[in-house]
Amino acid sequence: MIANVLVGLVALIHLYIVYLEMVLWDTPRGHKAFKLPPEFASASKVLAANQGLYNGFLAAGLIWGLYLGAAGFQIKVFFLLCVAIADLYGAATVGRKILYVQTVPAAVALTAVWLGP
């Protein structure tokens, strides 16, 4: 139960990131969230939407794993590992904040899934 709640939280975090990257990127809220100058946000809007789509696939995989219940164990593990690896790369190349906001929740959820119900 706790593992599924944590997996759901990671999925929700990534759905919010999808919204930020695909919808709010070139708005004052997007500029603030990603510390972007408006000119850069405007010029990189299509790239951000593509990045958002990838985050959507991560969230979709986690939701799929939740939907399958116990049979979704391997899917949850796979997508949580994908999230953790992508977020580690993001933390190393973009900013340390990603480590705390995305990687830590994914690692905690992964641990809970491995430990079982």
List keywords for this structure.
117 residues; mainly alpha; 0% strand
Structure write-up:
The chain is mostly helical and 117 residues long. Helices cover 83% and strands 0% of the residues. It has helices spanning 2-22, 28-34, 38-43, 45-67, 73-93, 97-115.
Range of strand content:
under 5%
Radius of gyration in whole Å, from Cα? 15 Å
Helical residue percent? over 70%
What characteristic shape results from the CA principal axes? elongated
Low-confidence stretches: none
Number of helices: 6
Task: Calculate the mean pLDDT score and round it.
Answer: 94
Kindly, what is the distance between the CA atoms of the first and last residues, rounded to a whole number of angstroms?
Answer: 6 Å
**N to C succession of SSEs:** HHHHHH
Number of strands: 0
Strand count, sense and barrel status of the largest sheet are: none
Give the helix/strand class.
mainly alpha
